[in-house]
Structures are given as C-alpha cells and as structure tokens.
C-alpha cells in the first residue's frame, strides 16, 4: 500500500483558516485522483474534496465555496485550504485516493473549530 502522511491540523476559532497537507509515497501519484475525507466523532467518514490528474475538482456541498483542494505532483503532495471554518468542520481529516483503498488509511490530522 501507499504511505500517506497528513499534517496541518490544529485548533482554530470559528471563521479561521487552516491549510492541510498530504504527502504520498506512491510512484504513480500524478495519475491518481486524490481526495480529502473527514470523520467526526460518532459519524461515518465522508468525502470532502477530490482532485483528478487533470486538476478537475469536486466538493461536498457543505464545504463548497470555503475549501479549496490542490496538488503539487512534483512534491507528491495534496493540499486542502480551509477558510471560514465552522464548528461542524471539526473532525479528523484523512487523505486517500478516490475511490479510496482501505490499506492507505493513516492516522489523519485533527481539526478542531471552537470558540
């Protein structure tokens, strides 16, 4: 399986911003559709945003207009810029391909939005 390392999470006040990063070890990274997922306590994991090889993007309705996914293939890295954060964005954020591969799930990075 590919190794994925997420970083950039933290505690932020409502209305604040964070930028998450995900670095992958796969040699075919540039060919894959990559995505960010999140899971809040007691809830199922959901897809937040995805980006294709050609940089087409999709977003969950709940984050559209606030979050932006991007990729830097030279660095094997996917980013998630999160603006206007709200308490309901609190979750552990993971990266994986889309569709996801079970062995790729890592530890994720915690995002907490609280006043």
Q: Would you mind describing this structure in some detail?
A:
With about 120 residues, this protein is mainly β. About 0% of the residues lie in helices and about 45% in strands. The strands form 2 sheets. The protein has a 6-stranded mixed β-sheet with strand order 2-10-9-4-5-6, with no helix packed on it. The protein is globular.
Would you kindly provide a brief summary of this structure?
The chain is mainly beta. The protein has no helices and ten strands. A hairpin with a 4-residue loop joins strand 7 and strand 8.
Shape: globular
Report the C-alpha radius of gyration, rounded: 13 Å
Q: Quick check: average pLDDT?
A: 95
Low-confidence stretches: none
Structural class: mainly beta
The ordered string of helix (H) and strand (E) elements is: EEEEEEEEEE
Query: What does the main sheet amount to?
Result: 6 strands, mixed
Strand runs, count: 10
Strand order of the main beta sheet, please? Answer: 2-10-9-4-5-6
Q: Tell me the helix content.
A: under 10%
Distance between the termini: 39 Å
Helix tally equals 0
Which percent range describes the beta-strand content? over 45%
